[in-house]
Write a structure and sequence with these properties.
Keywords: Acyltransferase, Lipoyl, Transferase. By secondary structure, the chain is an alpha+beta fold. Helix content is 18%, strand content 25%.
Length: 461
Amino acid sequence: MANIKTFYLPDLGEGLPDATIVEWHVKEGDTIKLDAPLVSMETAKAVVDVPSPYTGKVTKLHGAAGDIIETGAALAEFEPDPNAKQRAEAESTGHHHGPKKGAGSPAPDHKVVASDEGGEIESEGKADREDEGTVVGAMISGNTVHVEQASSVGGVKAVPAVRALAKKLKVDLTRVKPTGADGVVTLADVKNAAANGTAALGAAPARSVPASAGRHLAPELPEPGPAPSRTPVSLAGKPVRTAPPSVAVTGQPEQLKGVRRNMARVMAEAHANVVPTTLVDDADLHAWIGKQDITARLIRAIVAACKAVPALNAWFDGKNLTRTLHQHVDIGIAVDTEEGLFVPALRNADVLDGAGIRSAIKRLRTSVEDRSIPASELSGYTISLSNFGMFAGRYATPVVVPPCVAIIGAGKLSHDVVAVMGGIEVHRRMPISLTFDHRAATGGEAARFLKALLDDLAMPN
């Protein structure tokens, strides 16, 4: 009997739970050599070529292009060549090739501590982890599985996700026939009810009143007649849709992958673990002399504010209630792409001049666009900047991603009428939004930080 070896998707060193198949470099039945390219996998940061762990025949491929494979799940099966030199079973390849621990394995007591130097993560526990930097911030991972429990509300058993879907599709859960265990309404039940229109909200039949209960004081209304049937043509003679959107629709739902998939995870984590508060004001740029680099001025102003109020240039550990103030300033610059949001770190912003800032931002943007940016440059920043005003919008409530404490949002420049001594003038102004984690900083600290930032932006040059 052939000796079949199963190869599991390795941890690609980014702390992400899955990756997407981009392209197989072999097909079933092909012969491949050790360390030859096996498959290209897309993560939240880059497209990674995964090498073959064996020399031999490929007997099975698990998944096709576009499929999402969980880290530790089976990726391919091989029949190793007994006459070829193979890698020793215990020899490290730089990845973890074994499957994940089962549910019965105890999760290690893992704690992540932010270092004073910034960007370094110190692990405490039974096992060290790979870098856990993400596209939009650092997120702690673990082996604990969280299971939603079905709760009974109004006589209907369903998990929160099912109730949310029913609300979105306007389905009355009390009229949905449950097919799950113990009478639990499932996602499929809600989708089927939405498709056939049998449980639409507001369509429940009125309760019958027995004759012995007496008559209402209000006058009786005539019984409603049959509802008019819907036709595929409107009164104006134009075609109309008569079925719910879920019956015949193309392109929905779309499975989130790569950058967008990880962005969704990180944003949800941030929303659940941060107490955000936002202050807004306008920076008056009327005194600026000549044409100036707006982004460079914003970064210079953030550095000045960080030095004036260090409380917002910090990391906060909500579990242990510890705060790490940073002497240096590494600014996470939000970069919008078609694939999703990247936040590369502009290191040592506090020692760069205008030309250095522009050069560093250009390098970061180029490496993001060609997906060559290393994972180390997508985490470890001490404060963030979102210059969304280059597209549209005045004020915003940007998302603070732990462990950072604050993020600055710069809106679209405008010419506003302002009051001055003895009359009015038209000044160019920039809307500024400061969102901070109120657990780690006071309102007074945030206000002083914002004032220091506005004061620097108001300088002539």
